[in-house]
Amino acid sequence: MSRKTGKAAKFALEPAVYESILASIRDPIVILDPDLRVLTVNDAFYKTFKVQPHETERRLIHELGNGQWKFPKLTELLLDILPRNSFFHDFEIIHDFEVIGRRTMLLSGRRMTGPATSPMILLSIEDITERLQYQAAVRASLLRYRRLFEAAQDGILVIDPVSRKIIDANSSMLGILGVASQEVVGKELWEIGLLADEKSSHGYFRQLQQDGSVKAGAVPLQTKTGKAVVLEMVSKLYEEAGDKVIQCQIRDITDHRRMEEKLRQSMEFNQAVMANMGEGLYALDGRGLVAYVNPAAERLFGWKSDELLGRRMHEITHYQHQDGTPFPVEDCPGLKVLREGKVLIGQQDVFIRRNGTFFDVVYSSSPILSGTNIDGLVVVFREVSKEERQ
Predict the structure, then answer these.
(1) What is the reported pLDDT for 263?
(2) CATH topology assigned to domain 258-389
């Protein structure tokens, strides 16, 4: 009698356990019957799509909302699950939902056995809209920074290393100083205000002869019109047709220094967002070398950021398959983004921790573009269970 009671209690508890599991899942979940009619959904579904139970339960999936799930391919995939015991992962849809607007979703479906006697279909939904927007924002931020840097109009001075007198000046240099060519040519740097005095000039050119290049990071100057500017000056000693010549590259960084502060604040915000992401994130430069690793990626890989910077991520975390066979860099889907510039979303794979163990991941890789040039890529990944990869 007690054994029967125990069995009855066990099966009576199953629906409650089943409902608790559904409620604890962060992403929206839909349970369908064989006819694709909604049996139940979790709280995350109601919160995400801002709908009520009477609008959802017992309705066919393609009747929900404004037809957001009415995709022939999705219907085909769902109908194949039970008779063929099949499954699918990361089926992408982009739709203008009634309440929440335009969103990008990844759908995965599989057969499930629950407290009901008949087989059911579990449909999980992952909203990747913010992730894609964030990746686009990172690319845009890096692109803005590069354009600001490259847009600077540099002044050029050509100087005789023996007399230390200016031989020539370009129009940008004259514009920076606010003078005509005859007011510059034949004079020394200290005479036009770029060095403090003649004594400083001797020291500057002595160091230039010794090291081959000298950089003055912030040179204050008052132009002929009385405008106060801050200049950056880089001087290099070249040999040209057997003769030595000095070229000074002068950049007006007055506005740039103001912009740097704004950019620093912006970058601090971006860094804070990336540092607090639950997913791992790393960025590679155009050569495939690590340029940034967020704390979540450090945690998952077991490497510190400063141990990875400047190294090839593939050779550290992706160099072999789980069966021990080598994984050539040219076969890596994530790095193909660096060559082809195409976004990769929802790639299932395994990464390698510092201790040599493997872990299952789903990752997306996006190029960092400057015009038509691919300057690097950003990878966002999360650890998944083996069941999620199946």
Answers:
(1) 52
(2) Beta-Lactamase (3.30.450)
Cβ atoms of 219 and 249 within 8 Å: the answer is no
Q: Cα(109)–Cα(219) distance, rounded to whole angstroms? A: 64
Report helix, strand or coil for 253.
coil
Q: Which residues of 205-223 are buried (b: 16+ CB within 10 A; e: fewer)?
A: beebeeeeebebeebebee
- Verdict on whether the full-model pTM lies above 0.70: no
188, 201 in Cβ contact below 8 A?
Answer: yes
- Are 61 and 69 spatial neighbours (Cβ–Cβ below 8 Å)? yes
CATH architecture, domain 155-252: 2-Layer Sandwich (3.30)
**Greater pLDDT, 12 or 277:** 277
Tens digit of each residue's pLDDT (9 = 90 or more) over 301-336:
999 999 999 999 999 999 999 999 999 999 999 899
* 338 CB burial (10 A radius; 0-12, 13-18, 19+): buried
What stretch(es) of the chain map to CATH 3.30.450.20?
2-127, 155-252, 258-389
Q: Which CATH superfamily is domain 2-127 in?
A: PAS domain (3.30.450.20)
Which structure tokens are listed for 280? 């791992």
